[in-house]
Structures are given as structure tokens and as C-alpha cells.
């Protein structure tokens, strides 16, 4: 009798768990299909070119490294990367869970504790900054031409996502990188099931009055808006 109760309770718990997973996925699909700022039109004159970039899971916002409106070298220094390139053409920003970023360079490195802390609001966050000279436009990299006003809103959103020192300078995480052209910085906020790296990127587009999803935890919804 006791064993029966244990089995029944286990089945109920597993049933609730799988129901919540299905509900989460249905909500993600439905809400990521609802466009925000759907009247946005790409600029043809005096436009600033930005990009959205995905590795198949995670979305980066890619901006010019320097232009007449913003010089990112004041906040993030490419000279501190392994390449030491002082003048890249573009800089990509990807917000995410700090533990996941620093401990999981590949999926083989993923630990249960890292994933659990990331999903349930138990870890701090970091900004992954990658410097590029050229970007190849394809299904994983979309160019968006925007106005000065839209661009400055996006710049402000990204800048405000960094955790800074008393002088307002972002705090680089010493020795942390994946490749020759990237670095990590301390960031504000916490990662969770409901605020993922893609949610951050999508919110940046929304804040800048660019086309975006109502809400999405995945990259698919963001790119769908720019594949239409």
C-alpha cells in the first residue's frame, strides 16, 4: 500500500512536471509569434547597419565598433583580447548566465548544477563581447538598417546592461574568453526560464522600437521576424 502511494505520487509529480514543460513551450511558441513594432521599416538613407547573430541557440546584438554616434572602445577594449586587434569593425553583445558562460564552453561541459542555477534565478550574469572585422550575412546573421534614433536607444540599452565600477566603466572578467577575439564582462540582472539570453536580445530590439517578439526565450522567434 505504501509503495503504491509512492508510485502514484511520483507519477503525479512527473505528470505536473511534463505538463509545465509543455505549457512553457506552447507559451513560448505563441508569444514569440506575436510581433511588436510591426510597423518598423528599415532605413534607406543615413542608416546605421546592425546585425542579429545566432549560433543556433543564443542571439547576439552586433553593432559598429565605432561610428559618429558611439565609440565602444570607451567601454570594451578589444586590445585586451588574445588577438589584440585595436580596430575591429563590429562588436557583438550577448547577455547570459555567468556560470553557464564561464563553465560551459561546449555542451559536453554542461553540469546539472550549472543548468539548475541558470534556470531558477540562482546565478549572476555576464556579457559576452566578441569583436569582428567582417560578418557573413546568411540564415544565422541578419542585417538591419536603422535610424540614428533607434540606434541610440539600442546603445543605451546595451550600455545599461553592464555592471560598472564607481567610474561607470564595465568590469572585465579577467582571463575569461572562448576564442582569440572575445572577452567577458560583469552584467546586471539574472538569467531564468523567463528571462534568457534571447529574451535580453529581444528586449533590446523592442526598447529601440525595432521589430521584435512579444516575448521569447529562444532565438527562433527573433529571426522569424526578420526572415519574413
A few lines on this structure:
The protein has about 230 residues and is α+β, with helices and mostly antiparallel strands.
Order of helices and strands: HEEEEHHEEHEHEH
Mean pLDDT: 86
Would you report the number of β strands?
Answer: 8
Low-confidence stretches: none
Q: Characterize the largest beta sheet: strand count, sense, and whether it forms a barrel.
A: 6 strands, antiparallel
Q: What general form does the structure show?
A: globular
The helix tally amounts to 6
Number of structurally distinct domains: 1
Strand order of the largest sheet: 6-2-3-4-5-7
Radius of gyration: 20 Å
Distance between the termini: 58 Å
> Into which percent range does the helicity of residues fall?
25-40%
Structural class: alpha+beta
- Give the percentage of residues in beta strands: 15-25%
Can you walk through the features of this model?
This protein has 228 residues and is of the alpha+beta class. It has one domain. Helices cover 34% and strands 20% of the residues. The chain contains 6 helices and 8 strands. It has helices spanning 2-32, 98-103, 112-119, 148-160, 197-207, 219-226, and strands at residues 35-36, 48-54, 59-64, 90-97, 125-132, 141-146, 182-187, 212-213. The strands form 2 sheets. It has a 6-stranded antiparallel beta sheet. It has a two-stranded antiparallel sheet with strand order 1-8. Strand 2 (48-54) and strand 3 (59-64) form a beta hairpin. The longest helix has 31 residues, at 2-32. The protein starts with a helix and ends with a helix. The relative contact order is 0.20. The mean pLDDT is 86.
